[in-house]
Amino acid sequence: ASFDAQKREIINSMTAEQIEKRYVEMTEKVKGVLEEEERKGREVDEKIEALKMERDVERRVWERVKGKKVGG
């Protein structure tokens, strides 16, 4: 109900051109936010991959060190 009241107020107080302009502004703002979130998600994915690679390298080094100690 509250949304309908807001919608009615906007329609009654703004021209079609004003509504369209506001719509374009808001969609651009939302698009910008979504693009930023996608960028952050890619950065997180890249960090995760880097950490996985680092962990794999550490595991291999540890196995070599452990093998040398056992083999003497």
Q: How would a crystallographer describe the biggest sheet?
A: none
Give the proportion of residues in helices: over 70%
Discrete helix count: 2
Structural class: mainly alpha
Question: How many beta-strand runs?
Answer: 0
Distance, first to last CA: 78 Å
Instruction: Please tell me what the overall shape is.
Output: rod-shaped
Radius of gyration, Cα only, in angstroms? 28 Å
Low-confidence stretches: none
- Mean pLDDT score: 91
Order of helices and strands: HH
What share of residues are in beta strands? under 5%
What does this protein look like?
- 94% of the residues lie in helices and 0% in strands.
- It has 72 residues and is mainly α.
- The longest helix has 56 residues, at 16-71.
- The N and C termini lie far apart (78 Å).
Strand and helix map with partners:
Layout: H1 2-13, H2 16-71
Features:
2 helices; 94% helix; single chain; 72 residues; rod-shaped; mainly alpha
In short:
94% of the residues lie in helices and 0% in strands. By secondary structure, the chain is an all-alpha fold.
